[in-house]
Amino acid sequence: MTTTPLLLVSDHVEGCAHLVTVPDGTEVARLTGRHLSEHAGFLALPGGRVACVDDRRGELLVLDPHASGPVTAAIPVAVPAEHLAADPSGRWIAVTTGLGRNAAPWSDLLTVVDLATGDSSRVRTRVGEPGVTVLGSEDPVVVLRHREPGALAVHRCADLLTAPPGCPPVEPCAALPLPDDGHGDAQDPRERRVFAATGEGVHRARWTGDRLVAEPVIRWGAPARGWYLRLDTRHRALWSTLRGGPADPVRWPEWTNLAWRHGLDTGTTALTDLGPGLVFRLALARGHTAFARIHPTGDELVLLAADGSTRRVPLPAMDGAPRHGGTPWEGVQRRAVAAAPTSDWVAVTRGGHGEVHLVDVATGTETARLKLDTPLHHGGHAVLLPQPHGRDAGDPVGR
């Protein structure tokens, strides 16, 4: 068992995941033949474990990267995996299905797993690409965020796990309407509150035990919107990146990007300009929030400190990066960014090159560059895993 920080990097196209030490890059384990869902991402669990979905085999994997055999559970689930979430204790996990390599949503299957018993159940809800959160650890509920028509739909885990075989359709025990353009989910475990990003702002609702109660919408405060949400459990804040500018994806170099932070206890919102181009997911380090920005004039890692100061770390260009006149999604390389709330390291991938840049946020300098033997197509996906730190796993939604 190792006690050094570990980085798990997945090349989901090649079907390989690398577990390496930070910062020296020694490979301590490797998963082969595993095509981990980049969209569902990695889900932190208590005790330093992590959950993810093998989209080809149709399995929920629970990994203990600090143990000698990293795969501790492999449970069948419906795929293609769209979103992944757990209750705050890490016992109950929900997996929704989405597009996969299809032109339109086609699956209505939801899988719920009880890791304590190994029991699982598949049920039918609504065709789409639903987001998901799991509220509470005593009598937990699965909250699905649907689109077109938009809604928050609540299902009790106990009811789902006792559903008969054959993937029966299920009806929610409670629901609230949402705008049709929801995209992005988070929850506050302390308050049993769920958040959903829409064009209007962040819709929020609180589970009272038998019903979902809507609360005032948190406005973005800018002529742009966030397409995902991230919970900072250490500072009790919601984060997103607000994307503005032209709707045409071919004009992506003109997109504007604002870092958006909303304090859950203070109710205050702060906006910071990140620069134009493509800013995808963000990552939370000990005292900084990290954003990877891609632009034809040069890529960079943007580090936003708690005091509002900003560091910008240039990143070398990628062969096959998005270019003028094309979209930033189809047939191009991207970057994944990883950090941990208990660490001062940030990892940024260089898609197509099999490289990972390790940056010390305290100094804003690249201290190591890891070279892997798979190319990290599309940027791959990564998660930074410090040594186990008790029961609090942090954000209970897969990223």
Automatic annotation (TrEMBL):
<protein>
    <recommendedName>
        <fullName>S9 family peptidase</fullName>
    </recommendedName>
</protein>
<dbReference type="InterPro" id="IPR011044">
    <property type="entry name" value="Quino_amine_DH_bsu"/>
</dbReference>
<feature type="compositionally biased region" description="Basic and acidic residues">
    <location>
        <begin position="389"/>
        <end position="399"/>
    </location>
</feature>
<feature type="region of interest" description="Disordered">
    <location>
        <begin position="379"/>
        <end position="399"/>
    </location>
</feature>
